[in-house]
Amino acid sequence: MTRRRVAFSIACLVLTTACGARRIPLPTDTGSPLPNYSEIHAEVTKSCRGARTLTAEIGLRGRAGTRRLSGRLVSGFERPASMRLEMVAPFGPAGFILVTRGAQAVLLLPRDERVVRGESAEAILGALTGVTLGPADLQALLTGCILPESKPVSGRLHANGWASIELEGGATMYLRRMGSWQISAGRRNGWEVEYPMWQGAFPQVIRLQSAAQQAAVDMTATLAQIEVNTDLKPATFDVDIPAGTAPLSLDELRQAGPLGEKQ
Q: What is the separation, in whole angstroms, between the first and last Cα of the chain?
């Protein structure tokens, strides 16, 4: 009964249609040294490094493991590690509300009257969607910085108008010359991200893929109503838990989520 009830909310994310977007072909040649990589990096990351807060509506589609996922989220982020994700349902209460401020997060499933407490945002998001990333990492990916602290260490110039910049921590940023340089993709600790479309200084479409073959994640997020550096009230990152809401373990959530056993 627990899994069936929790799955009712999670099912708002599940579709059976496929999404087969073509991947951006990244450069494979060794290239030549890019002498001014540090200045280029400073210019292309100026906006995302300056994004103290971010709010946006996120249209989500893709797959996690064998499941197809889709949904619409209202999101808010504030450095260093605060986040609110609320899944908007077609009618009635939200599908879920996930808030975090610091190390621990709270997930409320209003329809099921269940709550997960005392777990990290990475663990909860991993159970919900397969995306095991925390608030700072998500904000960096959504704004185009690849990493929360994006520090360049070297650069290469490639064929066909491409360049790559190696970042401290083992990540790589890929840029294309579109008149000026623009971030097009990145790789970091088991994840690949693509930016096929930008809206002004920030990406409008983000494709996130896990490098792992098993339980693979392939998500595309389309951002709208993007606002940066607006003051967010502290209550943004809190959620009221109604009386009578029952606890839910992370294991129960994981089994009901897209990477769990099929219902």
A: 11
pLDDT in tens, 22-62: 778 899 999 999 999 999 999 999 999 999 999 999 999 99
Written as six digits, the tokens of 34 are 């890019």
Cβ(154)–Cβ(37) below 8 Å = yes
Residue 261 in any domain: the answer is no
For the domain that residue 199 is a member of, what is the CATH number?
A: 2.50.20.10
Q: How far apart are the C-alpha atoms of 105 and 122, rounded to whole Å?
A: 9
Structure-token pair, residue 242: 């109604």
d(CA 201, CA 80) in angstroms, rounded, equals: 21
Q: Report yes or no on 133 lying in a domain.
A: yes
Measured CA to CA, the distance from residue 234 to residue 76 in angstroms comes to: 11
Tally of domains in the chain: 1
**Strands 32-33 and 14-15, sheet pairing:** unpaired
22, 37 in Cβ contact below 8 A? no
Q: Which domain holds residue 245?
A: 2-19+29-256
Residue 24, domain member (yes or no): no
Cα radius of gyration rounded to whole Å, the chain: 19
pLDDT digits (tens, 9 = 90+) for 139-150: 999 999 999 998
How many other C-beta atoms lie within 10 A of the C-beta of residue 72?
Answer: 18
262 within domain boundaries: no
Per-residue buried b or exposed e for 76-89, using 16+ beta carbons within 10 Å of the residue's own CB: bbbeebbbbbbbeb
Cα 155–Cα 159–Cα 163 angle in degrees, nearest 5:
25
